[in-house]
Amino acid sequence: MPVALSNRTLDQLPPEVRVPRYDRSTLKPGIVHIGLGNFHRAHQAWYLHRLMDEGLAQDWAIIGAGVRPADAQQRERLLEQDCLTTLIELDPSGKSAEVTGSMIGFVPVAEGNAPLVAHMSDAHIRIVALTVTEGGYYRDADGGFDADHADIRHDAETPDAPRTAFGAMVAALRQRRDAGTGPFTCLSCDNLQGNGDILRATVVGLARLSDPELADWIDANASFPNSMVDCIVPATGPSELALAREFGIDDKAPVTHENFRQWVIEDAFCAGRPDWDKVGATFTDDVHAFEAMKIRMLNGGHQIIANPGEILGIETISGCMAHEGIRAFFRKIEAEEIAPHVAAVPGRTPEEYLDLIDRRFSNPEIRDTTRRVAFDGSSRHPGFLLPTIREALKANTPVEGFALSQALWARMCAGTREDGSTIEPNDPIWGQLNAAALEARERPAAWLEQRGIYGDLGSHSAFADAFARWLTDLYAEGTEATLARYAG
Fold first, then answer.
1. Distance CA 110, CA 77 (A)
2. pLDDT digits (tens, 9 = 90+) for 29-60
3. Mannitol dehydrogenase C-terminal domain: which residues (predicted)?
Protein backbone atom coordinates (compact mmCIF):
# COMPACT_ATOMS: atom_id res chain seq x y z
CA MET A 1 0.00 0.00 0.00
CA PRO A 2 1.26 3.53 -0.71
CA VAL A 3 2.64 5.33 2.33
CA ALA A 4 0.88 8.57 3.30
CA LEU A 5 3.51 11.29 2.94
CA SER A 6 4.61 13.04 6.15
CA ASN A 7 7.70 13.71 8.23
CA ARG A 8 6.88 10.63 10.27
CA THR A 9 6.79 8.30 7.27
CA LEU A 10 9.84 9.44 5.31
CA ASP A 11 11.87 6.44 6.47
CA GLN A 12 9.07 4.11 5.31
CA LEU A 13 9.26 5.16 1.66
CA PRO A 14 10.82 2.79 -0.89
CA PRO A 15 14.64 2.99 -1.01
CA GLU A 16 14.67 4.21 -4.62
CA VAL A 17 12.83 7.40 -3.59
CA ARG A 18 15.28 10.15 -2.64
CA VAL A 19 14.27 11.90 0.60
CA PRO A 20 15.67 14.96 2.42
CA ARG A 21 19.12 14.39 3.92
CA TYR A 22 18.70 17.23 6.41
CA ASP A 23 16.81 17.51 9.70
CA ARG A 24 13.68 19.47 8.77
CA SER A 25 12.92 20.19 12.44
CA THR A 26 15.94 22.51 12.62
CA LEU A 27 15.09 24.59 9.55
CA LYS A 28 14.32 28.26 10.00
CA PRO A 29 12.32 30.44 7.58
CA GLY A 30 13.95 33.00 5.33
CA ILE A 31 11.65 33.15 2.29
CA VAL A 32 7.93 33.76 1.81
CA HIS A 33 6.80 32.48 -1.57
CA ILE A 34 3.45 33.65 -2.93
CA GLY A 35 1.90 31.26 -5.44
CA LEU A 36 2.52 27.64 -4.42
CA GLY A 37 1.72 26.01 -7.73
CA ASN A 38 3.48 23.09 -9.35
CA PHE A 39 6.13 25.19 -11.06
CA HIS A 40 7.53 26.71 -7.88
CA ARG A 41 7.70 23.34 -6.14
CA ALA A 42 9.48 21.71 -9.10
CA HIS A 43 11.86 24.61 -9.62
CA GLN A 44 12.79 27.19 -6.98
CA ALA A 45 11.89 24.98 -4.01
CA TRP A 46 13.93 22.13 -5.53
CA TYR A 47 17.07 24.26 -5.85
CA LEU A 48 16.78 25.23 -2.18
CA HIS A 49 16.08 21.61 -1.19
CA ARG A 50 19.23 20.40 -2.95
CA LEU A 51 21.23 23.19 -1.28
CA MET A 52 19.91 22.05 2.09
CA ASP A 53 20.97 18.51 1.19
CA GLU A 54 24.53 19.91 1.07
CA GLY A 55 24.18 21.12 4.66
CA LEU A 56 23.69 24.73 3.56
CA ALA A 57 20.91 27.35 3.68
CA GLN A 58 19.26 25.86 6.76
CA ASP A 59 17.94 29.32 7.70
CA TRP A 60 16.35 29.98 4.29
CA ALA A 61 13.34 27.65 4.46
CA ILE A 62 10.19 28.60 2.55
CA ILE A 63 6.87 29.68 4.00
CA GLY A 64 4.17 29.30 1.36
CA ALA A 65 1.47 31.89 0.81
CA GLY A 66 -1.39 32.83 -1.48
CA VAL A 67 -4.14 35.40 -1.88
CA ARG A 68 -6.84 33.43 -3.75
CA PRO A 69 -9.49 31.06 -2.38
CA ALA A 70 -7.86 28.17 -4.27
CA ASP A 71 -4.67 28.82 -2.31
CA ALA A 72 -6.52 27.85 0.87
CA GLN A 73 -7.23 24.43 -0.62
CA GLN A 74 -3.58 24.00 -1.57
CA ARG A 75 -2.63 25.01 1.96
CA GLU A 76 -4.79 22.26 3.43
CA ARG A 77 -3.32 19.64 1.12
CA LEU A 78 0.27 20.60 1.85
CA LEU A 79 -0.07 21.06 5.61
CA GLU A 80 -1.66 17.61 5.82
CA GLN A 81 1.65 16.18 4.58
CA ASP A 82 3.96 18.56 6.48
CA CYS A 83 4.56 20.65 3.33
CA LEU A 84 6.49 17.82 1.67
CA THR A 85 6.22 17.38 -2.09
CA THR A 86 6.93 14.38 -4.30
CA LEU A 87 8.69 15.38 -7.51
CA ILE A 88 8.58 12.82 -10.32
CA GLU A 89 11.06 13.35 -13.15
CA LEU A 90 9.74 12.19 -16.51
CA ASP A 91 12.80 11.25 -18.51
CA PRO A 92 12.22 9.22 -21.69
CA SER A 93 14.89 6.81 -20.41
CA GLY A 94 13.07 6.25 -17.09
CA LYS A 95 11.15 7.90 -14.25
CA SER A 96 12.48 8.76 -10.79
CA ALA A 97 10.97 10.21 -7.62
CA GLU A 98 12.29 12.60 -5.00
CA VAL A 99 10.64 14.08 -1.90
CA THR A 100 11.58 17.72 -1.22
CA GLY A 101 11.34 19.43 2.15
CA SER A 102 12.53 23.01 1.78
CA MET A 103 9.05 24.37 2.53
CA ILE A 104 8.08 24.27 6.22
CA GLY A 105 4.81 26.21 6.52
CA PHE A 106 1.92 27.90 4.76
CA VAL A 107 0.41 31.24 5.77
CA PRO A 108 -3.35 31.19 6.50
CA VAL A 109 -5.27 32.61 3.54
CA ALA A 110 -7.54 35.37 4.85
CA GLU A 111 -9.48 38.34 3.52
CA GLY A 112 -7.38 41.46 4.02
CA ASN A 113 -4.21 39.30 4.08
CA ALA A 114 -3.25 40.20 7.65
CA PRO A 115 -1.44 36.86 8.26
CA LEU A 116 0.57 37.30 5.06
CA VAL A 117 1.54 40.87 5.96
CA ALA A 118 2.58 39.71 9.43
CA HIS A 119 4.83 36.95 8.07
CA MET A 120 6.51 39.25 5.54
CA SER A 121 7.06 41.85 8.28
CA ASP A 122 9.11 39.36 10.31
CA ALA A 123 12.79 40.33 10.24
CA HIS A 124 13.77 36.69 9.55
CA ILE A 125 12.13 36.93 6.11
CA ARG A 126 14.71 38.31 3.71
CA ILE A 127 13.20 37.31 0.36
CA VAL A 128 9.58 37.49 -0.82
CA ALA A 129 9.25 35.56 -4.07
CA LEU A 130 6.29 35.17 -6.42
CA THR A 131 4.90 32.91 -9.11
CA VAL A 132 1.58 34.60 -9.85
CA THR A 133 1.49 34.02 -13.67
CA GLU A 134 2.36 36.39 -16.46
CA GLY A 135 -1.02 38.12 -16.27
CA GLY A 136 -0.89 38.80 -12.55
CA TYR A 137 1.19 41.99 -12.51
CA TYR A 138 -1.50 44.59 -13.31
CA ARG A 139 0.00 45.90 -16.53
CA ASP A 140 -1.78 48.02 -19.12
CA ALA A 141 -1.71 47.47 -22.90
CA ASP A 142 1.59 49.34 -23.18
CA GLY A 143 3.24 47.21 -20.49
CA GLY A 144 3.13 49.89 -17.80
CA PHE A 145 1.59 49.73 -14.34
CA ASP A 146 -2.22 49.75 -14.48
CA ALA A 147 -3.13 52.14 -11.67
CA ASP A 148 -6.79 52.12 -12.69
CA HIS A 149 -7.45 48.43 -12.11
CA ALA A 150 -10.17 47.85 -9.50
CA ASP A 151 -7.88 45.68 -7.35
CA ILE A 152 -5.16 48.32 -7.38
CA ARG A 153 -7.61 51.09 -6.52
CA HIS A 154 -8.89 48.98 -3.63
CA ASP A 155 -5.38 48.47 -2.22
CA ALA A 156 -4.51 52.15 -2.63
CA GLU A 157 -7.66 53.17 -0.75
CA THR A 158 -7.39 50.47 1.96
CA PRO A 159 -3.64 49.81 2.32
CA ASP A 160 -4.06 48.07 5.68
CA ALA A 161 -6.39 45.42 4.21
CA PRO A 162 -4.96 44.72 0.76
CA ARG A 163 -6.54 42.41 -1.79
CA THR A 164 -3.46 41.72 -3.90
CA ALA A 165 -0.08 40.14 -3.20
CA PHE A 166 1.54 43.45 -4.12
CA GLY A 167 -0.62 45.37 -1.67
CA ALA A 168 0.41 42.92 1.04
CA MET A 169 4.06 43.44 0.13
CA VAL A 170 3.64 47.21 0.36
CA ALA A 171 1.95 46.90 3.76
CA ALA A 172 4.75 44.65 5.05
CA LEU A 173 7.46 46.95 3.73
CA ARG A 174 5.75 49.86 5.49
CA GLN A 175 5.84 47.97 8.79
CA ARG A 176 9.50 47.02 8.28
CA ARG A 177 10.45 50.60 7.48
CA ASP A 178 8.64 51.89 10.57
CA ALA A 179 10.23 49.20 12.76
CA GLY A 180 13.71 49.80 11.36
CA THR A 181 13.87 46.19 10.15
CA GLY A 182 14.96 47.02 6.64
CA PRO A 183 13.50 45.81 3.34
CA PHE A 184 13.36 42.36 1.80
CA THR A 185 14.29 41.34 -1.73
CA CYS A 186 11.27 41.09 -4.04
CA LEU A 187 11.93 38.18 -6.42
CA SER A 188 9.67 37.47 -9.38
CA CYS A 189 9.85 33.92 -10.74
CA ASP A 190 7.32 34.41 -13.55
CA ASN A 191 7.89 34.21 -17.29
CA LEU A 192 8.20 37.91 -18.02
CA GLN A 193 11.14 39.59 -19.66
CA GLY A 194 12.47 42.05 -17.12
CA ASN A 195 10.30 40.45 -14.44
CA GLY A 196 12.17 42.20 -11.64
CA ASP A 197 11.72 45.58 -13.31
CA ILE A 198 8.02 44.83 -13.80
CA LEU A 199 7.65 43.79 -10.16
CA ARG A 200 9.39 47.01 -9.05
CA ALA A 201 7.00 49.08 -11.18
CA THR A 202 4.00 47.31 -9.66
CA VAL A 203 5.09 47.49 -6.02
CA VAL A 204 6.51 51.01 -6.14
CA GLY A 205 3.63 52.24 -8.32
CA LEU A 206 1.05 50.86 -5.89
CA ALA A 207 2.85 52.32 -2.87
CA ARG A 208 3.01 55.72 -4.53
CA LEU A 209 -0.78 55.85 -4.81
CA SER A 210 -1.17 55.94 -1.02
CA ASP A 211 2.23 56.87 0.43
CA PRO A 212 4.76 58.58 -1.86
CA GLU A 213 7.44 58.66 0.84
CA LEU A 214 7.13 54.91 1.34
CA ALA A 215 7.35 54.42 -2.43
CA ASP A 216 10.62 56.37 -2.51
CA TRP A 217 11.97 54.29 0.41
CA ILE A 218 11.07 51.01 -1.30
CA ASP A 219 12.55 52.15 -4.61
CA ALA A 220 15.81 53.18 -2.95
CA ASN A 221 16.25 50.30 -0.49
CA ALA A 222 14.46 47.14 -1.65
CA SER A 223 15.86 45.11 -4.52
CA PHE A 224 14.04 43.53 -7.45
CA PRO A 225 16.38 41.14 -9.29
CA ASN A 226 15.46 40.02 -12.78
CA SER A 227 15.43 36.27 -13.30
CA MET A 228 14.80 33.64 -15.93
CA VAL A 229 13.14 30.37 -14.92
CA ASP A 230 12.73 27.26 -17.06
CA CYS A 231 11.27 23.82 -16.50
CA ILE A 232 8.24 22.18 -18.11
CA VAL A 233 5.85 21.22 -15.33
CA PRO A 234 2.43 19.75 -16.23
CA ALA A 235 -0.67 20.21 -14.11
CA THR A 236 -1.48 17.50 -11.58
CA GLY A 237 -4.48 15.27 -12.25
CA PRO A 238 -5.55 11.68 -11.60
CA SER A 239 -2.71 10.18 -13.64
CA GLU A 240 -0.08 12.11 -11.66
CA LEU A 241 -1.65 11.04 -8.36
CA ALA A 242 -1.60 7.46 -9.61
CA LEU A 243 2.02 7.78 -10.70
CA ALA A 244 3.02 8.84 -7.19
CA ARG A 245 1.22 5.78 -5.82
CA GLU A 246 3.19 3.60 -8.23
CA PHE A 247 6.29 4.88 -6.43
CA GLY A 248 4.70 3.84 -3.14
CA ILE A 249 3.73 7.37 -2.05
CA ASP A 250 0.30 8.69 -1.16
CA ASP A 251 0.85 12.38 -1.99
CA LYS A 252 -2.17 14.70 -2.32
CA ALA A 253 -0.23 17.18 -4.48
CA PRO A 254 2.63 15.50 -6.35
CA VAL A 255 4.41 17.26 -9.20
CA THR A 256 5.75 15.81 -12.44
CA HIS A 257 8.43 17.60 -14.44
CA GLU A 258 10.85 17.19 -17.31
CA ASN A 259 14.53 16.33 -16.90
CA PHE A 260 15.69 19.92 -17.46
CA ARG A 261 15.89 22.99 -15.23
CA GLN A 262 17.44 26.41 -15.60
CA TRP A 263 17.45 29.41 -13.30
CA VAL A 264 19.40 32.56 -14.18
CA ILE A 265 19.24 35.33 -11.58
CA GLU A 266 20.53 38.87 -11.37
CA ASP A 267 22.75 39.02 -8.30
CA ALA A 268 20.96 41.92 -6.60
CA PHE A 269 19.71 40.89 -3.13
CA CYS A 270 19.41 43.59 -0.49
CA ALA A 271 19.18 41.23 2.51
CA GLY A 272 21.30 38.24 1.54
CA ARG A 273 20.45 35.09 -0.42
CA PRO A 274 21.03 31.34 -0.54
CA ASP A 275 23.95 30.12 -2.65
CA TRP A 276 21.70 28.59 -5.30
CA ASP A 277 24.60 28.62 -7.75
CA LYS A 278 26.17 25.74 -5.79
CA VAL A 279 23.36 23.50 -7.06
CA GLY A 280 23.14 24.67 -10.64
CA ALA A 281 21.55 28.13 -10.74
CA THR A 282 23.42 30.94 -12.51
CA PHE A 283 24.00 34.37 -10.98
CA THR A 284 24.77 37.10 -13.48
CA ASP A 285 24.63 40.85 -13.92
CA ASP A 286 22.98 40.40 -17.35
CA VAL A 287 19.84 38.24 -17.32
CA HIS A 288 18.28 39.92 -20.35
CA ALA A 289 19.79 37.72 -23.07
CA PHE A 290 18.80 34.52 -21.24
CA GLU A 291 15.30 35.90 -20.66
CA ALA A 292 14.86 36.92 -24.28
CA MET A 293 15.95 33.55 -25.63
CA LYS A 294 13.71 31.57 -23.32
CA ILE A 295 10.62 33.75 -23.38
CA ARG A 296 10.62 34.39 -27.12
CA MET A 297 11.61 30.93 -28.27
CA LEU A 298 10.26 28.52 -25.64
CA ASN A 299 7.27 30.37 -24.22
CA GLY A 300 6.44 31.89 -27.59
CA GLY A 301 6.87 28.47 -29.16
CA HIS A 302 4.38 27.00 -26.73
CA GLN A 303 1.71 29.42 -27.96
CA ILE A 304 2.64 28.76 -31.59
CA ILE A 305 1.91 25.04 -31.30
CA ALA A 306 -0.88 25.01 -28.70
CA ASN A 307 -3.41 27.01 -30.71
CA PRO A 308 -3.42 24.81 -33.82
CA GLY A 309 -3.25 21.79 -31.54
CA GLU A 310 -6.43 22.88 -29.79
CA ILE A 311 -8.19 23.54 -33.10
CA LEU A 312 -7.27 20.04 -34.28
CA GLY A 313 -8.17 18.37 -30.99
CA ILE A 314 -4.65 17.23 -30.10
CA GLU A 315 -4.52 16.62 -26.36
CA THR A 316 -0.84 17.12 -25.47
CA ILE A 317 2.12 19.26 -26.46
CA SER A 318 4.15 16.17 -27.38
CA GLY A 319 1.19 15.17 -29.56
CA CYS A 320 1.35 18.58 -31.26
CA MET A 321 5.04 18.03 -31.99
CA ALA A 322 4.25 14.60 -33.43
CA HIS A 323 1.91 16.31 -35.95
CA GLU A 324 4.00 16.92 -39.06
CA GLY A 325 2.29 20.18 -40.02
CA ILE A 326 2.46 21.77 -36.55
CA ARG A 327 6.09 20.80 -36.06
CA ALA A 328 7.06 22.19 -39.47
CA PHE A 329 5.23 25.44 -38.65
CA PHE A 330 7.01 25.62 -35.29
CA ARG A 331 10.47 24.98 -36.76
CA LYS A 332 10.09 27.50 -39.60
CA ILE A 333 8.73 30.41 -37.56
CA GLU A 334 11.31 29.84 -34.84
CA ALA A 335 14.24 29.68 -37.27
CA GLU A 336 13.20 32.40 -39.70
CA GLU A 337 11.14 34.89 -37.70
CA ILE A 338 12.05 34.57 -34.00
CA ALA A 339 15.72 33.48 -33.86
CA PRO A 340 16.97 36.48 -35.89
CA HIS A 341 15.78 38.68 -33.00
CA VAL A 342 17.44 36.58 -30.28
CA ALA A 343 21.08 36.92 -29.25
CA ALA A 344 23.28 33.99 -28.30
CA VAL A 345 24.00 33.40 -24.60
CA PRO A 346 27.14 31.87 -23.07
CA GLY A 347 27.26 28.26 -24.23
CA ARG A 348 24.22 28.31 -26.52
CA THR A 349 23.17 29.82 -29.86
CA PRO A 350 19.52 30.39 -30.82
CA GLU A 351 19.81 27.52 -33.32
CA GLU A 352 21.04 25.15 -30.62
CA TYR A 353 18.27 26.32 -28.31
CA LEU A 354 15.68 25.58 -30.99
CA ASP A 355 16.90 21.99 -31.20
CA LEU A 356 16.82 21.75 -27.39
CA ILE A 357 13.24 22.93 -27.03
CA ASP A 358 12.19 20.74 -29.97
CA ARG A 359 13.42 17.72 -27.98
CA ARG A 360 11.84 18.96 -24.77
CA PHE A 361 8.43 19.65 -26.33
CA SER A 362 8.55 16.23 -28.02
CA ASN A 363 9.15 14.26 -24.78
CA PRO A 364 6.24 11.76 -24.77
CA GLU A 365 6.56 11.20 -21.03
CA ILE A 366 5.49 14.80 -20.36
CA ARG A 367 1.70 14.88 -20.56
CA ASP A 368 1.55 18.66 -20.71
CA THR A 369 -1.92 19.39 -22.02
CA THR A 370 -2.52 21.62 -25.00
CA ARG A 371 -5.32 23.29 -23.05
CA ARG A 372 -3.01 24.23 -20.15
CA VAL A 373 -0.45 25.77 -22.50
CA ALA A 374 -3.12 27.61 -24.48
CA PHE A 375 -4.67 29.06 -21.29
CA ASP A 376 -4.62 32.87 -20.79
CA GLY A 377 -3.51 33.75 -24.29
CA SER A 378 -4.54 37.34 -23.60
CA SER A 379 -1.50 37.57 -21.29
CA ARG A 380 0.81 35.11 -23.00
CA HIS A 381 0.64 36.37 -26.59
CA PRO A 382 1.39 39.99 -25.54
CA GLY A 383 4.21 38.77 -23.30
CA PHE A 384 5.78 36.11 -25.50
CA LEU A 385 5.07 36.92 -29.16
CA LEU A 386 3.93 40.50 -29.74
CA PRO A 387 7.20 42.17 -28.66
CA THR A 388 9.08 40.16 -31.30
CA ILE A 389 6.46 41.03 -33.90
CA ARG A 390 7.04 44.70 -33.17
CA GLU A 391 10.80 44.26 -33.56
CA ALA A 392 10.31 42.39 -36.82
CA LEU A 393 8.12 45.15 -38.24
CA LYS A 394 10.63 47.78 -37.19
CA ALA A 395 13.46 45.82 -38.80
CA ASN A 396 11.40 44.97 -41.90
CA THR A 397 11.98 41.23 -41.39
CA PRO A 398 9.37 38.51 -42.15
CA VAL A 399 6.10 38.43 -40.19
CA GLU A 400 4.08 35.88 -42.19
CA GLY A 401 4.43 33.18 -39.56
CA PHE A 402 3.69 35.64 -36.78
CA ALA A 403 0.53 36.70 -38.59
CA LEU A 404 -0.49 33.06 -38.97
CA SER A 405 0.13 32.45 -35.25
CA GLN A 406 -2.30 35.23 -34.39
CA ALA A 407 -4.84 33.99 -36.93
CA LEU A 408 -4.65 30.56 -35.29
CA TRP A 409 -5.27 32.12 -31.88
CA ALA A 410 -8.28 33.98 -33.26
CA ARG A 411 -9.55 30.79 -34.89
CA MET A 412 -9.20 28.92 -31.58
CA CYS A 413 -11.05 31.64 -29.68
CA ALA A 414 -14.03 31.21 -32.01
CA GLY A 415 -14.75 28.33 -29.66
CA THR A 416 -15.10 25.28 -31.93
CA ARG A 417 -12.63 22.72 -33.22
CA GLU A 418 -12.55 21.58 -36.80
CA ASP A 419 -14.39 18.40 -35.79
CA GLY A 420 -17.26 20.57 -34.49
CA SER A 421 -16.58 20.00 -30.78
CA THR A 422 -16.63 22.93 -28.37
CA ILE A 423 -13.51 24.60 -27.02
CA GLU A 424 -14.48 25.53 -23.49
CA PRO A 425 -13.62 29.04 -22.22
CA ASN A 426 -9.90 29.15 -21.53
CA ASP A 427 -8.99 32.76 -20.78
CA PRO A 428 -9.91 35.31 -18.09
CA ILE A 429 -11.39 37.50 -20.87
CA TRP A 430 -12.81 34.67 -22.98
CA GLY A 431 -16.07 36.52 -23.58
CA GLN A 432 -14.26 39.43 -25.22
CA LEU A 433 -11.98 37.14 -27.22
CA ASN A 434 -14.83 34.95 -28.41
CA ALA A 435 -16.91 37.93 -29.55
CA ALA A 436 -13.95 39.41 -31.44
CA ALA A 437 -13.10 36.04 -32.99
CA LEU A 438 -16.63 35.47 -34.23
CA GLU A 439 -16.78 38.94 -35.76
CA ALA A 440 -13.33 38.45 -37.31
CA ARG A 441 -14.57 35.48 -39.32
CA GLU A 442 -16.31 37.95 -41.63
CA ARG A 443 -14.19 41.02 -40.84
CA PRO A 444 -10.64 39.96 -39.81
CA ALA A 445 -9.67 43.45 -38.64
CA ALA A 446 -12.06 43.03 -35.69
CA TRP A 447 -9.54 40.77 -33.97
CA LEU A 448 -6.63 43.22 -34.21
CA GLU A 449 -8.88 46.05 -33.02
CA GLN A 450 -8.54 44.69 -29.48
CA ARG A 451 -6.21 47.54 -28.53
CA GLY A 452 -5.83 46.27 -24.98
CA ILE A 453 -3.93 43.34 -26.51
CA TYR A 454 -2.50 44.60 -29.78
CA GLY A 455 -2.13 48.34 -29.26
CA ASP A 456 -1.41 49.80 -32.70
CA LEU A 457 -0.24 46.57 -34.37
CA GLY A 458 -3.43 46.49 -36.44
CA SER A 459 -2.32 49.68 -38.19
CA HIS A 460 0.77 47.98 -39.67
CA SER A 461 -0.41 46.82 -43.07
CA ALA A 462 2.33 44.21 -43.53
CA PHE A 463 1.09 42.42 -40.43
CA ALA A 464 -2.64 43.18 -40.66
CA ASP A 465 -2.94 42.16 -44.32
CA ALA A 466 -1.11 38.88 -43.71
CA PHE A 467 -3.28 38.19 -40.66
CA ALA A 468 -6.48 38.72 -42.67
CA ARG A 469 -5.26 36.45 -45.44
CA TRP A 470 -4.27 33.63 -43.09
CA LEU A 471 -7.50 33.80 -41.09
CA THR A 472 -9.52 33.64 -44.30
CA ASP A 473 -7.50 30.60 -45.40
CA LEU A 474 -8.00 28.85 -42.06
CA TYR A 475 -11.76 29.02 -42.44
CA ALA A 476 -11.77 28.26 -46.18
CA GLU A 477 -9.20 25.47 -46.35
CA GLY A 478 -8.64 24.24 -42.81
CA THR A 479 -5.73 24.32 -40.41
CA GLU A 480 -3.60 21.53 -41.86
CA ALA A 481 -3.68 22.88 -45.41
CA THR A 482 -2.91 26.39 -44.18
CA LEU A 483 0.03 25.23 -42.08
CA ALA A 484 1.37 23.28 -45.03
CA ARG A 485 1.23 26.34 -47.26
CA TYR A 486 3.24 28.39 -44.76
CA ALA A 487 5.82 25.66 -44.16
CA GLY A 488 6.25 25.17 -47.90
1. 17
2. 999 999 999 999 999 999 999 999 999 999 99
3. 286-471
